[in-house]
Amino acid sequence: MNEDAPFDSVPKGNQIIDALRRPGATQLLSNARVVTLERAQHTTLLAQQMETVDFPVTALMSIVGSLDDGTTCELASVGTEAFVEIDAALRTLVAKRTATCLFGGEVVRVPLKDFQDELLRSPLFADLVYHAVRARVFTTEQIEICNARHTVTQRLARWLLLAGFRASRTEFPITHESLGAILGTRRASISEAIVTLEAREAISSKRTVVLIRNAERLREIACECYAVCRDAIEESRLREPFQLHVARTATGETGRGTEA
Prior knowledge:
The protein is 43% helix and 18% strand. A hairpin with a 5-residue loop joins strand 4 (60-66) and strand 5 (72-78). A four-stranded antiparallel beta sheet has the order 2-6-4-5. Helix 2 packs across helix 3 (123-149) and helix 5 (176-183) packs across helix 6. The protein has helices spanning 15-19, 112-121, 123-149, 152-167, 176-183, 187-199, 215-221, 225-237, 239-251, and strands at 33-37, 42-44, 52-56, 60-66, 72-78, 98-103, 105-111, 171-172, 203-205, 210-212. By secondary structure, the protein is α+β, with helices and mostly antiparallel strands. The protein has nine helices and ten strands.
């Protein structure tokens, strides 16, 4: 990829990549390529060395934890707001979790060395990455509270809303069994929750597809964790305007149009 025009072949959509779309802002994409992932395709594996870092554009990634008995549960979802896997930002070469494509689509794939070199070279890129990491840690912790305190129906509504927010979609090709694995609950509990959400006309569901019909109604049903997590992600997206606002305030250059 031509260093003078690193974005020519890179689709828009990932917030970190898009924030770097300015002359001389980054060398990150010199060896990048666009990859189309299929559902259930792994990009990192537990305890395995990483070779690349993926920035989702249209794909939605699922970070999965597992137990010795084979039980798995989603620990985090990653969409256009961030990258996988988080270990790359923590000066390590080995993944501590498995990252799997939940909904197929495109990612911008960058060699791990280029990613870690750019963290040292570019303060802007480092700022973007570390704010994304902060949002990831916060939302993961918030979902732990959610899983402990809220009903399966509330949690399912929260997950659908956040998945839609991260991937800009309202239709989800996913089974009740997969949703059960994601939320760490029985398939029967997911089916009951779906019936409840359908009765409220918030969603419609077939065996392998869930469709958000009324997002406002779904938000009414979801617990507060949806809004809390969404706000954390939005805050990471707004960090650069906020920094400009702080800088201009310090120099007396504030004016209209500089809101965080």
